[in-house]
Description:
Helix content is 29%, strand content 27%. The chain has a 7-stranded mixed sheet with strand order 1-2-3-4-5-7-6. Helix 3 links the parallel strand 4 and strand 5. By secondary structure, the chain is an alpha+beta fold. The protein is built from 4 helices and 7 strands.
Amino acid sequence: MIRKADYKDLDAVLEVIQDAKDLFKSKNSLQWQDKNGYPNRKTMEKDVADGALYVSVTDGKVTAVCSLGRFGEPTYNSIYEGQWLNDHPYYVIHRLAVKKEFYGRGLAKEILDHLEQISLSEGISDLRCDTAIENVPMNDLLLNRGYRKCGVIYLTRSDVLEKKRIAYHKTSH
């Protein structure tokens, strides 16, 4: 079952995020290794407050998380080495993570598909997202789900260790 997250889910959400951070670190990726712990409790609290955070729940346990940003992404105003597919209104996929005991079970695909359906039901046919170059599972997931690699964006947060990200766009037009 996939549903909107609530504040009571935050501890479980942060466990899922920590699993992803640990995985990235074990693969020598700088993604989510930021000095301030991003994504951290403050990040996830804002996602809940914005109604953006969704969780996949299996047997009463939070097993995957993802945010659906409905307010655009200022970082996406500049794209390099390519261009967005169009300039239509879009939602943003951020902070997709799966609990380690549930890797390989298709939960990332399920939550991504669910958020795409929510976007369409809200009249938004375009989704954008980004990920680190070395995040092969996410890059593969996005390509397999019909996202197109559009270029490169650079994160603007000052504490990010590696700012370069591959930018993706999916449109249902």
